């Protein structure tokens, strides 16, 4: 009697690969992303960006080793708008998680979306500098070291 539903969340993770993000921060970002699988997430779609989207979507599961299988592209400036435009055009996602240092122009989100947005800053200082604009579009937090 009754029904059983598997809860599935379609998440897009956007990783800032601009020049202001250190190799250490990138490793920390991918370390945090890898831990999502401990909490029941089965797959994540990953995209890299700087001033533009840098790759096709990479679908990651718990067997995927980001540090061994993802080549970092980009290393230019930072623009969040290409990621926001992508999420507007691809409405299948329940959530967008952006790993960044926050150093970029505030994106325009001038459309209605059901996609929840989480900004993850590389550290507490970046969070303190940028959380006020980030929280106008979603939630914000930082990677604790």
Distance, first to last CA:
47 Å
Strand order of the largest sheet: 3-2-1-4-5-6
Q: What is the tally of beta strands?
A: 6
> Tally the helices: what do you get?
4
Largest sheet: 6 strands, mixed
Q: Short summary of the structure?
A:
The protein has helices spanning about 25-35, 65-70, 80-90, 125-135, and strands spanning about 10-15, 45-50, 60, 95-100, 115-120, 140. With about 140 residues, it is α/β, with parallel strands linked by helices. The relative contact order is 0.19.
Question: How would you explain this protein's 3D organization?
Answer:
Helix content is 26%, strand content 23%. The chain contains four helices and six strands, in the order E-H-E-E-H-H-E-E-H-E. A six-stranded mixed sheet has the order 3-2-1-4-5-6, sandwiched between helices. Strand 1, helix 1 and strand 2 form a beta-alpha-beta unit. The longest helix has 13 residues. The chain is globular and about 55 Å long. The N and C termini lie far apart (47 Å). The relative contact order is 0.19.
């Amino acid at each position: 009697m009754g029904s059983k539903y598997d809860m599935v969340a379609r998440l897009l993770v956007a990783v800032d690969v601009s020049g202001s993000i250190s190799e250490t921060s990138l490793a920390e970002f991918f370390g945090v992303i890898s831990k999502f699988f401990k909490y029941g997430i089965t797959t994540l779609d990953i995209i890299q960006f700087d001033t533009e989207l840098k790759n096709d979507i990479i679908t990651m599961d718990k067997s995927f080793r980001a540090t061994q299988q993802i080549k970092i592209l980009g290393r230019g400036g930072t623009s969040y708008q290409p990621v926001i435009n992508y999420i507007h055009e691809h409405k299948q996602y329940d959530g967008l998680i952006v790993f960044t240092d926050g150093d970029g122009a505030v994106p325009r989100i001038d459309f209605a979306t059901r996609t929840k947005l989480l900004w993850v800053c590389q550290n507490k200082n970046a969070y303190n500098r940028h959380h006020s604009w980030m929280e106008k579009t979603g939630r914000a937090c930082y990677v604790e070291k």
